[in-house]
Structures are given as C-alpha cells and as structure tokens.
What does this fold into?
Amino acid sequence: MADTYDLLLRGGAVVSHRGVETADIGVRDGRTAAIGDLTAASAAEVVDAAGLHVLPGVIDTQVHFREPGNEHKEDLEAGSRGAVLGGVTAVFEMPNTAPLTVTAEALADKLRRAKDRMWCDHAFYMGATAENADALGELERLPGCCGVKIFMGASTGDLLTEDDATLRRILAAVRRRCAVHAEDEPRLQERFALAEAAADPAAHPDWRDTEVALRATRRLIAIARETGARVHVLHITTADEMRFLAEHKDIASVEATPQHLTLAAPECYAELGTRAQMNPPIRDRGHRDGLWWGVDQGVVDVIGSDHAPHTLEEKARTYPASPSGMPGVQTLLPIMLDHVNAGRLSLLRLVDLTSAGAARLFGIAGKGRIAVGHDGDFTLVDLAARRRISDEMMANRSGWTPFDGRQVTGWPMATVIRGRVVMRDGELANLASGRPMRFGDTLRPV
It folds into this structure.
C-alpha cells in the first residue's frame, strides 16, 4: 500500500544535508516524514515544485514588529504577513516595545497578541536592564522566549545598558547565547553635536563612527570572557569588528544584514536620504567589502533583516530628529538570492546563513534543516525569476522599503510552515497559523 501524506512537494531541487538533488518531500502531522522518490505516494495536497529550489524555511533572527506601543509603524500581523510573503517561516522579535519586554507578564502579553494573528512561527527576546538583570537566567527560559537582548548604545526605544558594571551582571546571569547591539553610548553622546551640526543623514556614519562600534564590541568581548558568557553580536558594520570577532569565535557569533551587504555610503544617503538611516549605520564600500570577507571566510553565522519600520512622515523629519530603522523582513531573501545569482555566495552558504545557522546557535527545536523528523518548513524559490521590488508590494504598515525600484534575480514562490502552505505565488492562506518556537537545551554551565 502506498504511503499517504498531508502534503507532498514533488520534483523540486531540494537543498538538504545531501546537497542539492531532485526529490519529493512528504509531510505528515506537521513534520517531514520522507525525502526521495515518492512517485507512488499520495497526499491531501500536492505542490508541483519542478523548476524550483526547495530550501529549509528561512529564519529571520532580528525583527522589530513594534507591538505593543507603536502599531502605527508596524504590528505583529502585518510584519509576519510580510515575512511569509518574503519566504520567511520564523522570526525572533525584539523587546524594545512599549512597554518594554522585560518581564514574564510582558512576554505573555506578546504571545497572546501573536496567537491567531502572526502568519509565521515566532519567539520573543527578553530585554536586559539593570532592574531585571538578576532574574534573566529564569526569564530567558520561559516558553516563547528566544533569549536575552542587550542594547549597549541607544537606538529606538528605552532599553539601554551603557555601563560595564550592569553589562557584567547581565552576562553573568544569562545562560543562553545573548544578543547584543554593540555601540558605545559615551562616545555617541560625545559626538552627537556632529549630527546636529550637519542636519544631513550623510553624517550618520560620522556621528556613529567605526570607533563607536569597535569600542563597544571590544568591551563586550572582554566582559563575555570574564563571565563565561556566549554572545551574538548583531548587525556588524565595520571591517575592523569583523577581523576582531574572527579571533573570538569560541564565544562570539556574528550577524550581518542584507542592507549592510548591499548599500554603501555616501551614495545611499544621496539617493535615499533618511530611508538609509539605521543604527549602526550604512558605511562605505571598504567596510562593506569587510563584511563580505566575513561571509566568505565563515565569520558571519547568520543573516538577520533588522526589520525596523518607521512611517515616511517620521522619516521626513530633519536629521537627526528622524528615527533610525528600515523595513527588511520581506526583502531579506530576494536581496540575498540576488547576491547568490551575482556569485557573491553559494546557495548552500545562504541556507547556512538563513536557516541552519540560527537553529544551531540558538537551539531551535525541529527547524533549520530539511530532514526527517524536523518541522515541515520550506521556502520554495525560483532562482531565475526577475522582479522589481517596490513600495507598493510591501506588507509592512509603514508601506515602504529602502530597495524600492531595485531589480533582483531570485524570488520566493511559496512558503510552507509545518506542512501548511501559507503563501503561494504571492497569495496568502486564509488564516494566520504561526506558533511559538520550541528550544532545546543550549545552556552554558553555571
């Protein structure tokens, strides 16, 4: 008797632990049940994947969906809708909301808000403060929490850990890998007059200069070694940091973003104005080349979008009153697929950066690979499809992208989460069905 499945993906180029091979995938009860020649099998739903590459579901480990507190910019429904339209099956959402996600109650509130509204699977960061530092070892292990986030430099919101004493307390308490926005707050304050005097977003990488980044990253690594912590350094922007972190991979993992790998100063500020303004800033081609060195040499572990929308009205304020941040979850995969087509990285390396890397670093249970027993999460892409990215196609509530007008080669054609097709050819399923992610034991010893 032939096997039966809930879903069959037929004839795609499957990217898995076996390399790239034409195969069928059968999913039953939300999990991958078979990979190979399933010609004789049947299923309740069959997707013809011929001509497409079937990737493990893409995981974006840094998004700001702004809910609660700033739903006029973004919310959990719209942000996750953009995610699945862009081929993203799961996200880690950041804690600098209003109120801040710094308590068990605030985390529970986000999980309630996400239920039946988020299109993709999800987990939420717990923000680190001086007030909750001693409790973080327990808070980070709550269901639905992906870990702890530290802001060493001020960005959007009120989370800030600028002094070494508090940073030391936090890193001593945390047992999981801790995500860090590493900019040196004292130097930012010292140099703010440069931004005010310029009144031009082109001054953003001068105000938040390379020393702002490198000084904070050096401080972070020194304290992580002292406390035995493992840290995940977010959105690296400088060649200097990349070379430095390459010497500390035993305790530090590294994130890069599509925008820092794609845009470059000064032209991005001339072309995009405050749309190109984010923290840390887009820098010149030399630093961008340094980031690509990190990708090529294996220093970079994951690609995250740092999706952080503001309305165009807010962005129209005179710099530096204009807020920093840009949308990105919906364009993460198209931008990176375009780099694959341009020969900047291989498809296998992209999969490691967008799926396997996140699962490996953070101990995500059942995700990050196409393998029997893992969740049936897949991103189906057409590597030859040419599309022009536009503001109009963006699902984010702010309704724009810094990549408006950019033509790319490579496009997500379907998004499958736990065996359910949630997006196909740009059309969404009828109901949002994202669930909280589960995590295995990745705690460091006390």
